[in-house]
Automatic annotation (TrEMBL):
Keywords: Membrane, Transmembrane, Transmembrane helix. Gene3D superfamilies: 1.10.1760.20. Pfam families: ECF_trnsprt. This is ECF transporter S component.
């Protein structure tokens, strides 16, 4: 039961992603070019529902404080690297946060990092897409931590590298739907090809950050997580009678 509770956020994000992709077919049948407006509406509604689900869930004040801290660290880490083409530690930090603290914390840390850092770098229609993309990166890392809790340095480096391209794919979807006409497979491929080198810089930066700092950061966060855990001890019958 605990496993399925932890997997609730990943399943919700997979459903949202499927809905987003299915709306392409709806666009082709009914809406013409209107998918450029439909896609942001789906993303924003999804973020609102996911934040509402988090707020309604059983979340301790300690967990909220940890998520806020992780999101802020990722956001602050992004700002100094803004001048470099897609080389930033934010993705790497979000992935580690999700891997250690789980899918829900990973999503909240990732989406919070995008929102907070854009107060310094500039808010815009790209913000919900960045929140969704980084949230998905944190969630997928949380799933990795559940299924492969002993994933080593090599595995997580490759995972971080791949997320450089996956993040680019999601953001390219925003560019394609918002600024490209017509929406067809030719323009889709051209949009992705145009960002290939930027996505490669992002992926390489993620891998380099994890190789240099990943294992030590994971150990620090795991030690911090253990301090936050509360273990309920069973009551022994003799102790119970003594208490009475």
């Amino acid at each position: 039961m605990a496993f399925w509770r932890k997997m609730l956020f990943p399943f919700a994000l997979v459903f949202i992603l499927g809905l987003l992709l299915a709306s392409i077919k709806i666009n082709a049948l009914l809406l013409g070019q209107g998918w450029g407006l439909l896609a942001p509406v789906i993303i924003i509604m999804a973020l609102v529902l996911l934040y509402w689900g988090f707020e309604q869930g059983r979340v301790s004040s300690r967990e909220v404080a940890v998520i806020a801290m992780l999101g802020t660290i990722a956001a602050v880490g992004r700002v100094p690297f803004a001048a470099l083409p897609n080389i930033q530690p934010a993705t790497f930090m979000v992935i580690i946060s999700g891997f250690v603290f789980g899918p829900r914390a990973g999503f909240m840390a990732g989406s919070t990092a995008a929102l907070v850092s854009n107060f310094f770098l500039g808010q815009g229609p790209w913000t919900p897409w960045q929140m969704f993309a980084w949230g998905l990166a944190g969630t997928s890392a949380g799933v990795m931590g559940i299924i492969f809790p002993r994933a080593g340095k090599k595995v997580m480096t490759v995972f971080s590298f791949l997320w450089g391209y996956l993040f680019g794919c999601i953001m390219n979807l925003w560019t394609w739907t918002g600024f490209v006409h017509p929406l067809n497979w030719q323009s889709f491929v051209a949009t992705y090809a145009a960002s290939f080198w930027f996505d490669t810089f992002h992926a390489t930066g993620n891998a380099a950050f994890y190789l240099l700092f990943g294992p030590s950061f994971v150990k620090i966060l795991q030690r911090f997580r253990r301090k936050l855990e509360v273990t309920l001890l069973p009551v022994i019958e003799g102790d119970k009678n003594a208490a009475l």
